[in-house]
Amino acid sequence: MPHLPELYRTAARLLGDSAQAEDVVQETYLQAWKSFDRFQPGTNCRAWLFKILLHTIYHHRRKWFSLRRVKESEEVLEQAVARMPAVPERITEEEILRALGRVPADYRAAVLLADVEEFSYKEIAGLLNVPIGTVMSRLSRGRKLLREQLSELARSYGIGLAGQEDRSA
Amino acid sequence: MNCEELREYLDACLSQELPVGTSREVLQHVEGCPRCAAELAARGRVRSALQAAVRATPVPHGLEAKVQRAVRAQHSRTRAGIYTIAVAAAAMICLAIVNLSRVKASPEEAILKKNSGRLAVVLNVGLRDHLYCAVFRKYSRQPESAAQMAAQLGPEFAGLAPLVQAKLPTDLRILQGHRCTAGGRQYVHFIMARGDRLLSLILTRKQPGESLAGGIYQAGVDRFEVVGFESRDYLAYVVSDLDAQQNLRLAASLAPAVREYLGAHLG
């Protein structure tokens, strides 16, 4: 199936749960199949599938989570991004995924789409249905929050930060 | 460019979204500024680590097969629905040749008889899109705006919408005008409604060997009535669940304007 691994990994990171990610990916292909004759040949099939995926995740969240989505307080975010977090010299897979999981979903989506899936700002704006300016600010904040989380994780583990050479391998 | 200005550009630089000139300025600054160079390197490091870690996410064993099964199951359900009627319709259009007649009593009954199988295939091309696109999709009964329709039809066919509307009886309005695909073939499709009756005007470019020999043909299939006519390069159909006479009258009032438009603009 085209693009299944990319869709799955994005869903898994956004939902934080592999079973839900599987459901959402299946739903995405079913939706895509149903509306395939609406797909315009020559346009980007991968972006089209991602758009369906993100739409499905949005509805999935609404369907399964009775919790209201907590809007991150702008103030808290501002505080977090005002600092210049120091990034560890070496970053393990586990550390970065854990840090990513702590970034609020809207920002996490922007970071995943830009940095992992390498969509352009313009494509991301289309996928998330937001203006390009919003993509840029979410991406910038999302990346900064990620660095912040990484540096906090490193501190909590007592691991040396950038510039320190005594970190054990 | 100073350090503060540079920090503003780092995100766009990392996403390769900076204009060439600005990229050059960023690189020039970074070459002479170890702090900014370290910051850029740190951000690049996080990006690479994130990319590697997320891309390494294993796809659960069996997910692809599970999705394929679900798609196949849905496909066969949909096919069962669409094809029961579409196949029945196709079979009927091919077999119930008694219903196929050349409009405007032609003396060439023998020619009609000889060609009826081929003509039925050509009429079926229009019926297929009506079934797939108008009948099985539930469209909103709210008419689209002229601007929406023009955007969906594209410049080649946008001009046809007002001409068609002008030829329709006052109780018929175009709900939708768009381009669609059915069975791998592209159509220009106007959907109209009167009460719970659904009507389509359908155009498609001729494929090799397809022709209605200059005539207007009609066929009755199940509850559907099809009238087909042609221009040099296009096949055109009026398909509806009206009775045969009403459908034919509608087609007869639309055909001259449609042919004229196709002749003037598209062949």
List keywords for this structure.
heterodimer; A: 169 residues; mainly alpha; Rna Polymerase Sigma Factor, Chain: A; Arc Repressor Mutant, subunit A; 2 domains; 8 helices; 67% helix; 0% strand; disordered C terminus; B: 267 residues; alpha+beta; Phosphorylase Kinase, domain 1; seven-stranded antiparallel β-sheet; 9 helices; elongated
In words, what does this structure look like?
The complex is a heterodimer of chains A (about 170) and B (about 270). With about 170 residues, chain A is mainly α. Chain A folds into two domains: about 1-70, Rna Polymerase Sigma Factor, Chain: A (Orthogonal Bundle), CATH 1.10.1740.10; about 85-160, Winged helix-like DNA-binding domain superfamily/Winged helix DNA-binding domain (Arc Repressor Mutant, subunit A, Orthogonal Bundle), CATH 1.10.10. In chain A, about 65% of the residues lie in helices and about 0% in strands. Chain A is built from eight helices and no strands. Chain A has helices at about 5-15, 20-35, 45-65, 75-80, 95-100, 105-115, 120-130, 130-155. The longest helix of chain A has 26 residues, at about 130-155. Chain B has helices spanning about 5-15, 20-30, 35-55, 65-95, 110-135, 145-155, 155-160, 160-165, 245-265; strands at about 100, 175-180, 185-195, 195-205, 215-220, 225-230, 235-240. Chain B starts with a helix and ends with a helix. Chain B has about 270 residues and is an alpha+beta fold. Chain B folds into two domains: about 65-105; about 105-265, Phosphorylase Kinase, domain 1 (2-Layer Sandwich), CATH 3.30.200. The longest helix of chain B is centred in the N-terminal third of the chain and has 33 residues, at about 65-95. A seven-stranded antiparallel β-sheet of chain B has the order 1-5-6-7-4-3-2, sandwiched between helices. In chain B, helix 1 (about 5-15) packs across helix 2. The interface between A and B is large, with 40 and 37 residues.
